Amino acid sequence: MANDQKERKTGLSRPRNIATLLSVMVPGLGQIYNRRFLKGIILLLVAISFLVTTWDYLDIGIWGLFTLGTIPHEHHSIQLLLQGLISLIVLFFGIAIYIYNIRDARKDAIAREEGRINPTLLKGMLDFYNGGFPYFMIIPGLIMLVFIVVLPLLFMLSLAFTDYNQYNAPPRNLLSWVGIDNFVDLLKMDIWKDTFFSVFTWTIVWTVVATTLQIVLGFFLALLVNDKRVKFKRTIRTVLILPWAVPAFVSILIFSALFNPTFGAINRDILSQFEIMIPWLSDPFWAKVALITIQTWLGFPFVFALFTGVLQSVPADMYEAADVDGGSRWQKLRHITLPHVLYATAPLLIMQYAGNFNNFNIIYLFNEGNPAVRGQNAGGTDILISWVYKLTFETNNYNMAAAITIIMGIIVMGFAFFQFRKTAAFKEEGRY
Asked: Where does the record place the ABC transmembrane type-1 domain (predicted)?
């Protein structure tokens, strides 16, 4: 028993434990104990400055984050929510410095136990330059990224769990945390449920059909132009890429005029010859057909240019070997061309699907997601992102818009991650 107590006492009195304990109690004391006086004083000053300058802000911020205010008209829930999120970010940086202080003190104490001499100031500066200087230089960019990207994302995530809508908005009313009630309403309340599933299914159809058509068309045209029997390849490629050169919003507005059922050239000059008049903008089905057609036109030039470059890199001896073995055109396309093209372009093609899933421009510029549908608070051609826009800027249903945005983000991230994991390019990325 006496030996155990002696060993325990000896263990507690080891420099590494003393330095760790001192750093836990007061940042910088562990470094001073290890005779790293300059570093210890700097860490101590940083800790004192952090507490003095941020204590009141953090105190109000954390309180506001949990309560969202207690006095209507005086407390603004949105301001308190933002201050609370900023407080969490600032607190995270403070905790990171605090943990660094503890680990650094323990590391220096271990070196002291092993008899290693503390580096001089010059040696410490050189070590910092060689090992930590790159990290030090990216800190400003990291801080900017946190406040420009991470903070808005956290704010959006937070709104999805509040009751912030047009009938309950600060400072007239205080917000409350409602948990997952918004997601439950989205799946159970009739008007939200019907609209959500209608818009969600159309978003999936839009993404799959429009993107697949532009990929198939781009691949088909690239195969034709890459054929040895085709002449004037440069001219043909230039003409086929022209739709890509015109700004997309200009093309969409032009198509919106062309598809206009009253004065549009498609009905008036083309279909009228066959005594056909299609309600492109007033009928949801035909509006969706028009949107898919326009997106195919806008998207195929990029895919065409992408596939054209990849096809030129396929080794000719592979086709020659297939000819010797008696391979048909279909077999060469299936076993040589297609695998080679998909291997090189799969990540970019996946991004085409993800991009069209959130393709707000074409939906809004063509007909603003219309026509209206009875019993729904979204238009007949609205996809999730355009519906979120309307909920945010037209009906002020911020909580439901945030909830839908979270669902969209999960879908896109899950789909992209799953597809990337299945591509050979992703699997071999870490091998080199």
From this structure: 200-419
